[in-house]
Write a structure and sequence with these properties.
- The complex is a heterodimer of chains A (295) and B (281).
- With 295 residues, chain A is α+β, with helices and mostly antiparallel strands.
- In chain A, 23% of the residues lie in helices and 40% in strands.
- In chain A, the strands form four sheets. In chain A, strands 4-1-7-8 form a four-stranded mixed beta sheet.
- Chain B has a five-stranded mixed beta sheet with strand order 2-1-3-5-4.
- Chain B is 46% helix and 17% strand.
- By secondary structure, chain B is of the alpha/beta class.
- Classes of the chains: A alpha+beta (295), B alpha/beta (281).
- At the A-B interface, strand 2, strand 5, strand 6 and strand 8 of A face helix 6 and helix 8 of B.
């Protein structure tokens, strides 16, 4: 038994350095792959591709399945199942052209008919968010034109007010007031801001929510104000990371179940590496104590 | 509601008088009398036809502006009084409505501005000569904005129609293709056809025109479709199509969807055709 435990520890100790080497290697590979995938929007436009993402921002509407039907290409159809409040899908590259957007309650019978909700004309090199907005009784799918480029050295931000508990909210980023008294279901246009890290403050009826947000030069963000379990919450959707980078994912942060996290800070990797080192040291010490225990 | 009805009836009487007095003065000759009688008959026929068409063809959520006599005729045809905007003689414009019924009385009241400023396009027309009645779409943001939106919408319809022609799940005649290529099909029909075709292959039998005397810029709002594959499943496929259509909501809920000859489906959307539906944003 003791021998088995000894062998297991040897294996663990040997595995840790490999793990420590593998993590940064994977991170580097990921970065390289992202870099290789950095196709310009111009190239995408030439290829006849645009991007669509779907989002559910209607607080009291149950989860829905969303369907995109191409007018001309029956093979270019998209189905997203179980899209819930706060969800934003990654951007999906689709051939240019018109699409009908339809939806039905998640889990509804296959024989029930999806309800037509909007149509969207996807233009090459452009991106769109098809968002369910408003209360369930007045649910509408709105097609939002997403900006992918910014003025040189600047960032773009817009706000979607999707909190039903607050009829209107005011949103500021640092000293910059992005929008005051933004009504439920409303969306601002993009605003140009100087890049940096600052605190986003959402206030309504004396309730404030704060979130530190970094806006890099060339990045485009959609900030979504949501009803959370403990008050207002904010989703920070990354619409574009830079003018030369294709849209790749829906959400950088937040609560979207479908939203992949955008690679941003190296801190999480460093934390994992640090934890690994700590484990290696502790494991090594305990291993050194083993012969003494045996004698 | 009762108050509105009473007001319409009361003003209708006054308006009838006004309309009568606006007719040419006549002598007591029998010929002139018969001409007046014919003119009145023509005006009544046009008014009745226009009222019936509006009751049957105009979307139930559209507000219709009309002179008191016309509003009374519309109510008699079953149009809810709450959808009527009565234009008395003191009203200076038809704004606040979706459609205006351009009767001889309203043409006199608003003059050339009715067509040039407030309601540039006729979506249907009844009668002829002085008795003619046009149903015109109201340009809430002005004629220039309306014309621009109409042109953009036509461009979007042409593009969308071209894509439907390429859709491998849709078959159609050369005539139907020509209509689609010209952007003459209502955007709601285009959107609905794309969604239906995604579920089962279909055939477009023909597009229809339920709007007599409409301007060439006004799209067709009806279509007859059938399952692409004939055979024993036809009835079931038609039922699936019908239930899909009946499950829709405004603006995609058709005004009428009925089986034709047990082998096809006739689908018709209400007037007026919405602008900007295809652009989405």
């Amino acid at each position: 038994m003791r021998f088995t435990r000894f062998v297991r520890r040897i294996i663990l100790l040997a595995a840790l350095p490999l793990l420590l080497l593998a993590i940064p290697a994977a991170a580097l590979a990921n970065a390289a792959s992202a870099s290789a995938a950095t196709t310009s929007t111009t190239a995408a436009a030439a290829a006849g591709t645009g991007w669509i993402r779907l989002a559910h921002f209607s607080p009291n509407t149950p989860a829905v399945d969303v369907y995109l039907y191409s007018f001309g290409d029956t093979s270019a159809q998209i189905v997203l199942h179980h899209v819930s409040y706060g969800d934003a899908s990654p951007y999906e590259g689709v051939p240019t052209g018109d699409y009908t957007v339809a939806m039905r309650a998640a889990g509804a019978s296959a024989t029930s008919s999806p309800v037509l909700s909007a149509s969207v004309d996807v233009v090459a090199g452009r991106a769109y968010t098809v968002a369910g907005l408003g209360p369930e009784s007045g649910l509408r799918l709105q097609v939002l034109d997403d900006d992918l480029t910014t003025p040189p050295g600047k960032a773009l931000v817009r706000v979607i007010q999707a909190s039903l508990k607050q009829s209107a909210v005011s949103v500021s980023w640092g000293a910059t007031m992005l929008q005051s008294k933004l009504a439920f279901g409303a969306t601002t246009s993009y605003q140009t801001v100087s890049p940096g890290t600052s605190t986003l403050t959402v206030s309504a009826n004396g309730q404030d929510a704060h979130l530190s947000i970094s806006l890099a030069a060339g990045s485009v963000h959609t900030l979504v104000v949501l009803d959370g379990a403990k008050g207002l919450q904010v989703d920070n959707l990354l619409d574009a990371a830079g003018s030369a980078v294709d849209p790749a994912g829906g959400a950088a942060t937040g609560f979207g179940g479908m939203a992949p996290r955008a690679p941003s800070s190296p801190l999480p990797w460093l934390a994992v590496i640090g934890a690994g080192l700590l484990l290696a040291v502790v494991g090594g010490r305990r291993l050194r104590r083993l012969p003494a225990a045996r004698s | 509601m009762l108050a509105i009805s009473a007001a319409i009836a009361a003003v209708a009487i006054g308006s009838s008088t006004t309309t009568s007095t606006s007719l040419p003065r006549t002598s007591s000759h029998a010929n002139s009398g018969s001409q007046i009688s014919a003119s009145l008959q023509a005006a009544t026929t046009a008014r009745t036809s226009a009222a019936r068409w509006i009751a049957a063809q105009v979307s139930p959520n559209a507000i219709v502006a009309c002179d008191p006599a016309m509003c009374a005729a519309l109510q008699a045809s079953g149009v809810d009084a709450g959808r009527l905007l009565v234009l008395g003689t003191s009203v200076s414009d038809p704004l606040g409505s979706d459609l205006v019924v351009a009767t001889p009385a309203l043409r006199n009241q608003f003059g050339a501005r009715l067509a040039s400023v407030y309601a540039p396009v006729a979506i249907a027309s009844f009668g002829s000569g002085p008795a003619r009645i046009d149903i015109r779409a109201v340009a809430a943001d002005g004629t220039a904005a309306y014309d621009s939106a109409l042109a953009a919408d036509r461009g979007a319809r042409i593009a969308a129609g071209g894509q439907l022609i390429d859709n491998r799940h849709i078959t159609m005649s050369a005539a139907a293709q020509a209509v689609l290529r010209a952007g003459q099909v209502d955007p709601r029909l285009l959107t609905m056809l794309a969604a239906l075709a995604a579920q089962q292959p279909l055939q477009i039998v023909a597009f229809g025109d339920p709007s007599p005397g409409a301007s060439a810029a006004i799209p067709l709002r009806s279509v007859e479709i059938a399952p692409a594959r004939a055979g024993g499943q036809t009835a079931a496929r038609l039922r699936t199509m019908l239930s899909f259509l009946q499950a829709q909501r405004v603006p995609y809920l058709p005004m009428e969807a009925v089986l034709v000859r047990q082998s096809a489906l006739s689908v018709e959307y209400g007037a007026p055709s919405p602008l900007g539906l295809l652009s989405g944003t």
